[in-house]
Protein: Solute carrier family 46 member 3
Amino acid sequence: MVIGLLSGVASLSTGYFLRAAGFNWPFFTSALFQCVNLVYAVFVLEETVQRPPDDPLDGSPRRTAMRQLAYGVYQLFAGASRRRNVLLVLLLLLFSSFSFANVGGISTITLYELNQPLCWNEILIGYGSALSMTVFLTSFVGVTVFSRCGVPNLVIILIGILSVMAAMTLVAFAKTTLMMFLVRLPMLLAIMPFPMLRSMMSKIVSKTEQGCSRPQMAVRFSWSSIYAATVTWYPGFSFLLSAGLCVIPLALLACVGLLGVDESKEAKEAEALIPGEEDLAVDYNPPLT
Structure:
């Protein structure tokens, strides 16, 4: 939420910065702030993860880390029930497919705004980007309100997916500045599925394996290529494609609903998968002398 709010403020001011100083100074300022962040992360922040001791037989910390990573991925499915494994795979596919459709569609909105028939300038681009960043705040409020009202997690995810489908469909047919601003309204709850899916996946895997259940996808370049290939005959095709691809996470969500999700039961099963987790943690964290 904080990242979204600060990104919105930055987007709102960037247009005026570009008009006043040109394109070089904004890039220089951004690079300067990134250097400050890097210095702060390297010299100020403390390491929160203790490194395990090197393998005396191997002598290579990298190979030891790779073995631990492979073992963690293996433990995601080893020893668990078939139902739990199927549920985890469905949630991973649901998260990945929704990320592809959502991030891909949103990443091409600026290209659409720069071209005809909109032809926005840097000020309007900044306003549009700032409005798009409000989705982080509204989605956070939506998750909080729906959760306190007792709305099931799957229903919250469904609302978020439908929000993306509606927004992408409207963007494909937006031809005026007013319409392009209004399409942000159905997008207000588009981020809700991400925290809900992360929460559900975290509850059905062991605490020591949660880092292995977070897939990341880089899709911006592929969607930019799709937009470049279709902009001459229909600029809104990539957004219709994004809305159509949302059918895949909807189908996976239906499968998860049919399978049933008992988070309390799944959490107990996950904690019982590795009885010696605590002993393993002690082995990797010797007492300090």
The chain is about 70% helix and 0% strand.
